[in-house]
Design brief:
There is one protein chain. By secondary structure, the protein is an alpha/beta fold. The protein has 2 domains: 135 residues, 3-Layer(aba) Sandwich (Rossmann fold), CATH 3.40.50; 156 residues, Aspartate/ornithine carbamoyltransferase (Rossmann fold, 3-Layer(aba) Sandwich), CATH 3.40.50. It is 42% helix and 14% strand. It is built from 13 helices and 9 strands. Strand 1, helix 2 and strand 2 form a beta-alpha-beta unit. Bound molecules: phosphoric acid mono(formamide)ester and norvaline.
């Protein structure tokens, strides 16, 4: 029996484990592109709980496990009533008896933690209000493919200090990357959050906070943004749109990055707000490759977690 592991944040992995997952992901992607579909997870079943909307996460897990010989079932919250029809504890214990792994997109990170504490099968965080570890795996895979290596790479994050940027800071620390965060006042990580995210920092890791987006993207290999209003923050919409207005990634801003810089966005994007069409549709944009890499990255993670 494999020891039970949950991936609720990237800090649940050791640095070497993270590197090994990324390596497996790249290999599985290369195999897949050559038409090789080894059934490494034959007969394995994923239960996928989604309390929020999703395109990429759901499809990439479902397609990924299928390619590996397994299957997935979608458990929408409106059907299972997690915490309302039935306690988190009971849902977790029952699912553990029938599936090999649970993929969980939750409104509150604490609920995934509670769920995992009762689960006897691995639980993977498929996005919470605090983190999005699977996204960061795909992001570094995309960056490595583009630049051939992750050494001396500078990432500029423009926008909200949110779930996606939290996992990006975490993976940057673990892989020794340089990351610059440019967020408006009131939307920045606390010292405590930064300390938690950078616990496993490796040589080469550098974290800067630069308020002016133009200065933040200077010399950056990667310019990355996300929505200004994440799922669950709709009540703050008006205030956020005003506060983030000068943090738009547009063609003018991209001119300040390296000539060979790429643009990333976890998607879905609000075109015309955090990013303009002329950037997201430009030759510098890698957003579709990044989305595709969700599937390859998660296949690496699933094989690492579940292969007998
Ligand atoms: N990037 C991402 O997680 O997309 P979905 O919300 O569509 O799954
Ligand atoms: N920050 C966004 C990411 C969506 C993939 C959200 O939480 O809505």
């Amino acid at each position: 029996m494999k020891p039970l592991r949950h991936i609720l944040t990237l800090s649940d992995l050791e640095v070497e484990e993270l590197k090994s997952i990324l390596k497996t992901a790249s290999k599985l992607k290369a195999d897949y592109k050559q038409g090789k579909h080894e059934k490494l997870l034959d007969g394995k079943v994923l239960g996928m709980i989604f309390e929020k909307m999703s395109l990429r996460t759901r499809v990439s897990f479902e397609a990924g496990i299928f390619q590996l010989g397994g299957t997935a079932m979608l458990l929408e919250d409106k059907h299972i009533g997690l915490g309302s029809r039935e306690s988190v504890k009971d849902v977790s214990r029952v699912l553990s008896s029938m599936v090999d792994c649970v993929v969980f997109r939750a409104k509150r990170h604490e609920v995934v933690e509670e769920f995992a504490s009762y689960s006897s099968v691995p639980v993977i965080n498929a996005l919470t209000d605090k983190s999005h570890p699977c996204q960061a795996l795909a992001d570094v895979l995309t960056i490595k493919e583009e630049f051939g290596s992750l050494e001396n790479i500078k990432i500029a994050w423009i926008g909200d200090s949110n779930n996606v940027s939290a996992s990006l800071v975490e993976i940057a620390a673990m892989l020794g990357l340089h990351i610059v965060i440019s967020s408006p006042e009131g939307y920045r990580f606390s010292q405590e959050e930064i300390a938690t995210l950078t616990q496993q920092r490796q040589p080469g890791f550098e974290l800067e906070f630069i308020d002016n987006p133009k200065d933040a993207v200077s010399d950056a290999h990667v310019v990355y943004t996300d929505v200004w209003v994440s799922m669950g923050e709709e009540a703050e919409k008006q205030e956020r749109l005003e506060r983030f207005a000068s943090y738009q990634v547009n063609a003018e801003l991209m001119k300040n990055a390296r000539k060979d810089a790429i643009f990333l966005h976890c998607l879905p994007a609000r075109r015309g707000l955090e990013v303009t069409d002329d950037v997201i549709d430009s030759p510098q944009s890698r957003v579709v490759a990044e989305a595709e890499n969700r599937m390859h990255a998660q296949k690496g993670l699933l094989v690492w977690l579940l292969q007998d």
